[in-house]
Design goal:
The chain has 124 residues and is of the alpha+beta class. It contains one helix and nine strands, in the order H-E-E-E-E-E-E-E-E-E. The chain has one domain: Immunoglobulin-like (Sandwich), CATH 2.60.40.10. It has a four-stranded antiparallel beta sheet, with no helix packed on it.
């Protein structure tokens, strides 16, 4: 009887173990061109393409909107592996938008923001 209960318990854990390998814990580090952290930058992460994953029978969240902390870091809980779109918006910098391929269990993306381009007017 104990052996049978143990086998059922092990079988119940198998799908959860495989599901974890299809997710990436993502960390985004935002700096300026000199390497100084950019705090309070808006970070938008969207899962674009890949395997849509369910964890414990629930669909995993695939869109995140958050801000960087004092050291320029934004941590996103596990997101499905595949192509993701990352957009970073910060006051005093050009907007960054790029698609990335993530296929590891943990990934850190280092994003360097450019200063704004000078504005020109035809009326001067």
């Amino acid at each position: 009887m104990i052996r049978r209960v143990f086998c059922f318990a092990c079988l119940a854990l198998v799908p959860a173990l495989f599901a974890e390998k299809d997710l990436t814990a993502l960390q985004i580090q935002v700096t300026d061109l000199q390497g100084k952290p950019v705090e309070r930058a808006s970070v938008v992460v969207r899962f674009v393409q890949g395997r849509s994953v369910k964890k414990f029978g629930k669909k995993v969240r695939t869109n995140w909107e958050l801000r960087t902390n004092q050291v320029g870091t934004a941590k996103i809980p596990p997101i499905p592996q595949g192509k993701i779109l990352v957009q970073v918006i910060a006051k005093g910098f050009q907007t960054h938008g790029q698609t990335y391929e993530v296929d590891e269990e943990e990934k850190t993306l280092e994003i360097k923001l450019n200063p704004p381009q000078p504005q020109y007017s035809a009326h001067n």
